[in-house]
Amino acid sequence: MPDQPRDAAEQGGATEHGGATERGGAAEAGGAAQPAAALTDFLRRFPAYDASAIDALRATEYERLDRLGHTYLDCTGAGLYAESQLRRHLELLRDGVYGNPHSQSPTALAATELAAGARSAVRRFFNAPDNEFEIVFTANASGALKLVGESYPFAPGGVYLLSYDNHNSVNGIREFATRKGAAVSYIPVREEDLRLDETQVLLALRGAGRDGPKLFAYPAQSNFSGAQHPLEWVAQARALGWDVIVDCAAFAPTNRIDAHAIGADFIPISFYKVFGYPTGAGCLIARRETLAKLRRPWFAGGTITLASVQEEEWYHLAPGATGFEDGTIDFLGLPAVTFGIEHVEAVGIDKIHDRVCALGCWLLEELQALTHSDGSPLVKVFGPKDGECRGATIALHLLDPDGRPYDVYDVEAAAARERISIRSGCFCNPGDGEVAHRITHDDMERCFSDPAAAMTLLQCQRTIEDATGTVPNTIRVSLGIASDFADVHRFVRFAGSYRDRRQG
Ligand SMILES: Cc1ncc(COP(=O)(O)O)c(C=O)c1O
Known about the structure:
Helix content: 40-55%
Structural class: alpha/beta
Radius of gyration: 24 Å
CATH architecture of the largest domain: 3-Layer(aba) Sandwich
Shape: globular
Strand order of the largest sheet: 4-3-5-6
CATH class of the largest domain: Alpha Beta
Bound molecules: pyridoxal-5'-phosphate
Largest sheet: 4 strands, parallel
Number of domains: 2
CATH topology of the largest domain: Aspartate Aminotransferase, domain 2
Strand content: 5-15%
């Protein structure tokens, strides 16, 4: 497809991005108002919206979006990088000589210094002081979670307790737990808003795992529904003897994370979700004393102080983060983490948070106000229906006038034809999807009854749809640092184009 800029009216030009206020008008029934009127209405409803600073960045640092005509609405999938991050990284690589950091040569020491700089930027950005936390560099959030799962001292009598709305990289830790004889227990989310019931959480924390190590895991923000959960549960769980993973992969891009205040034992992060680049780096923010309880199932180059081939048990694991960073760290990628953090710090994470919340709330309200001409709703939102305690990640179906969802993959393809990037499927979050679409245990069993035939996600979805008539997959729209009003307006218009459209 040729690269085409968005048309000027749609884009709103400099005025719309710059947040002009002289426009007026009302939303049209069943579709978005014209961009100018809609912007005026938006600014009236969200007067604290800070248009100027980030809109200016959009025109410079993220200029490629509009030049290439993209409406990028998959920020929970991956964040976007600013051009200056690339420039600074390229300059650093071009003007330096860096060797493998595992030695004392000048080039090795230069690489060691870059890694140290990245580690201290991560500490600063997430307020993870050195005397309390280790920063373990990993390939991504999944790598951070695997480190915990494979090394946690699960044992008979212990338990792995987790919420339904975890990402599969958190769900997967149950494999390590069951293999070591620990119980696995899930806390369901409520169907109406995909939130956790606090009473149920506290009951589970008080009731489970009296006789062994116990690990509790939940996301600060669901990557499916955007629902945010109380971070106060961390202290309550720890007071009851739990070690706690708070998965911040979907929360970090638009929320301030204060590791010291949250107090969790483990926080996994993927950096590309926060600032787009680099894509091969993440970290585990780990409490020192809890990290010391972990037992790694192997050792590798870089993780030991000493090993011998003459006796199998002769090796000493290096203390702290070093013992968890297998092989050579991404020493040329890590300075890009420093630049990414500095970029977000310069913009201001609180500013990003407030702006994205305003755009997300407007989008949520506008989508839920869309109707067909007979008054039936055009959009069904799964998860929180208002802006309270949620991120700008919205899970939805577009419904026809008879209340039947349009095929999510067809919708994704139609959006793609307009260069709108959205996501459809289950987003590696089966728990939220199963509750949202009322998929029962018996329904799911159809997809697992024949262990020899490993079904794909698509086959499973079609099987359930054929058997139950329920569409078990979802559309997701998500905002981030570079999102602007034109993006959300464009999506409301796209959704509104389904008005009165009948299905065969
Ligand atoms: C909440 C959450 N946790 C963990 C992950 C895993 O991240 P990665 O694929 O970068 O390892 C994701 C990715 O989407 C996520 O949204």
